Amino acid sequence: MELQNRTLKFRDSYRAAMQKNYSGFLHAGFVFGVGITLMLLCFSHIKGLSFWELLFIPAAVLLANVGEYVAHKELGHKKRKFAKLFYSRHTGDHHSFFNHVNYQVDVVRDLRVVLFPALLLVAVTAGAAAPMGWIIGKVVSPNAGWLFAGTLLCSYLFYEFIHLCDHLPEHYAITRWPLIKQLREHHRMHHDPANATLSNFNVTLPITDWMLGTLNKR
After folding, report:
1. Per the CB 3.0–4.6 Å rule, which of 134, 172, 182, 206 could disulfide with 202?
2. Eight-state DSSP code of residue 94
3. Domain ranges (residues) in the chain
4. Which tens digits make up the pLDDT trace of 11-48?
5. Is 200 left (phi over 0), alpha (psi -120 to 50) or beta?
6. How far apart are CA 135 and CA 83, in angstroms?
7. CA–CA separation, 74 vs 130, rounded Å?
8. 79-112, pLDDT tens digit by residue?
9. Mean pLDDT confidence for 44-58
10. Are 92 and 79 in contact (CB under 8 A)?
11. Helix, strand, coil percentages in the chain from 3-state DSSP, rounded to 5
């Protein structure tokens, strides 16, 4: 009961402090609209794809999955001087707003505490997808570079989509899709304060959780 009261109190204070002109629809529209545009732009440059170049799809997916895990575990749940804002937004805001019982958004404006800040898409594009794609394009082949960059962006969007589905109200039909339902439970267990720093750090497919022994299926 104390946890629930603390969570509800935090929700009230968080919502009261939000900018009046914040729009959850615009936030989601920017992330998915710009993200999908950039991803399709990468894929549009691919011409005459060879079979061996397709190997850069699983390579990018695995890299994104490991990166998701490491960022969540090592930056989201541990205080690092160079990532204070990330820790504050994740542990300070997200885990205070949601627990394993109070797990769903109530209104569209609550998306502010679910989706990453819009500028993170720009940072991922400029700091990871673009430079890594460029290097692979020069060293391996242009197709491999564009495919790798586009797949990284796709993985980022997949994270945002799954995390959004994780916190949607249960009456939404999409929450009953088998994969979504399973990943929602996986993430809900992570929001139990007893598990938050110990297990289920992947939000998308729990590949790295499984590899490193932090997958909790209880």
Report:
1. 206
2. I
3. 22-212
4. 999 999 999 999 999 999 999 999 999 999 999 999 99
5. left
6. 26
7. 24
8. 999 999 999 999 999 999 999 999 999 999 999 9
9. 96
10. no
11. 70, 0, 30
